[in-house]
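Q: Is it fine to ask for two folds in a single conversation?
A: Yes, each is treated on its own. Send the first.
Q: Here.
A: Result:
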Amino acid sequence: MPHTTFNVDEVSEYLHLPRAEVEELVRRGEVPFERAGERAVFRRADIDAWASQRILGFSGSHLKDYHRRSTAKAHDLSRERAIVAELLRPDGVRPGLASKTKPSLIRDLVQMAVATGLVVYPDDLLRSIEKRERLCSTALTGGVAMLHPGHHEPYMFEDSFLLLARTAQPIPFGSPDGQTSDLFFLMCCQDDRLHLHVLARLCMICFHTDALLRLREAPDAEAMWRAVEAAEADVLKIT
């Protein structure tokens, strides 16, 4: 379970701020905290709300500094690199997801994302995915959808990652062919370049290999992950 409170060092790391700056914010009373004896204690929920408003919303200078400190972690995007297998871990695959509607599917995927421990702002992630889906559905032909937030920034996640879910029953998700969807990728990337690279690779996997068939026939999460791994290896042979 994620920590519900932080000390000064932990909140400094969580916010990508120098310890001295956190201490100054405490001294000026500009960050929500409580006293436990002589120590400052920070509640995670309060810090998330404060950071979203102050760092990511209200102050351009804070946002600029935060972006500089929270540089996206580098990933090898060379043509021969198996980037999908790197970003998608077996514990990030879920067969038999119980979602029955588009809104519940999005919420369930965000909960899966939170469980990775890599999401810094869960509420922002949910809102961004919902906004992206309102703009245009990420469902594609073949019963697969490739969800992602509407913007890709270093501060959103501790690192980039992928999730994959198969619903217990297909659901309407806005596919251009009018068919239902049962396979859902969630792409959480720290920058646009990585996002576009992963999106292209996933499309190759889904539409130039037998991955969709194998994913539907896979008995468990491990088998689904192996199907993606094998399909990406096939893609790397033909590109």
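Q: Second one now.
A: Result:
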Amino acid sequence: MRASALALFTFLSACGGSPSDDAGVSGRDAPAADVPRVDAPPALDAGPDGEPVGHARELRAVWVASVFRLDFPSAAGLSEAAVRAELAALVETSADAGLNAIYFQVRPESDALYDSSIEPWSRFLTGTQGRDPGYDPLAILLELAQPRGIEVHAWVNPLRGLTTTAITVAPNHVSRTLADAAIAYDGGITMDPSDPRVHAHVVDVVVDIVSRYDVDGVVFDDYFYPYPDDTRSPFPDDDSYAAYTAAGGTLGRSDWRRDNVNRLIAAVASAIEAEEPWVRFGVSPFGIYRPGMPPGVIGLDAYETISCDPLAWIEAGSVDYVAPQLYWPTTSSGQPFGDLIAWWASQGTEERPVFATLGPYRLGSAGWSVEELALQVELSRAEAPAAAGQTWFRYENIASDAALRARMAALYAAPARPPRVPGREGETLAAPTVTTSPLGFAHPRAAELAGYLVYRQDGALEAFVPRGAATPALAAGRYRVSAIDRGGLESLGAPFVVP
């Protein structure tokens, strides 16, 4: 992630400059000799020795749920034209709210909202699991979102086999192909988290997505070992644990369960790194790690109850971020948002940050308002750089609330790109070339770029220009343009002047 404004100012000062060095130089002033004007000859190359640029990075994402058609699609059996219209509206609404990422649920119950040869089409598209809808929602969303500068992350439920057993299951569904690993619980199916075949299947699914679709990230939600049912009956994995101990395993059941999940997360992370290292991988865990952490917090013990240990994933480098689900107001006595985001941020780092997951679905409940959500954004920003963004659950609650969208647009008025994906230390990216008549930007590694960032003379980010998009009209003035790749690595800025 890029440094804060203060750190950027310090860095520029050390280099003999500052964000205000260009003060008093208008676009109509005579430019310095090393600053190309847009009416100069084409192919004005700043080369690798451009000028330092940067802005406060921030992920701003919305969750789009396909399970039970909560957000998409609006009904089963829609035509391709109707689906395209709904996805276009989704992109437009997200852009209007100032968001830069969409978490699109592509695997709600071990099925697919994309063209998969591994798993069946989701019943939430057509009403019948395995029936081809005749179109590919993920491909359509990528086509619509990325030219608008909005990332698309594939939201995958890793271990939920079925939400209900009361449906007709497709022959190639994992609950049939690995039937002895399908554990019935609370009316649905959880695929055995201890089974190596289940792990391999999940890895294959993720690799299939990132290798065939131009997604920017993969995100898991909090469905690992299932939440307790209404009777709080234990999850029935006695046979699996007995087999583990019979083979010489020595971990207690709780530690064994967490180890199963930890190994799955590590395997997925390694597979993504090997396939597409710039694809961001994260998990959105339950918002309370353990009661009493931080002091005074009460509630479900996710570490023990659903075998979720995000601190282990951060420490091992198995995730690029965590996005804890902080669905409590700042006024809560047992789960105050402010204390929770401060605690989670203390577990993250600038390299592997925390994104606060906010709950606009709670609007209308006691203690919730648009301004409460705005306060939560500001509290999360106060924890930067270890906290570096927000994710919003979920789309329908934003789309149906004009006041919330307007407030989000104000909070996100200044453009920003998500933080850099970890593991890019020491890498560099050449500055872009500024071309003229008309103004445009080019780069020798253009196919690897997300796009270009245009900075004003005061150092503020003016615009993000996605790869392949038209260069925006710029007012007269002095600017710098940098290149940014798919993993968020940014080059130095090539200076230019618009007369």
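Q: Anything structural to flag on that second result?
A: Two points. The first helix runs from residue 5 to 14. Residues 5-55+424-498 form one domain.
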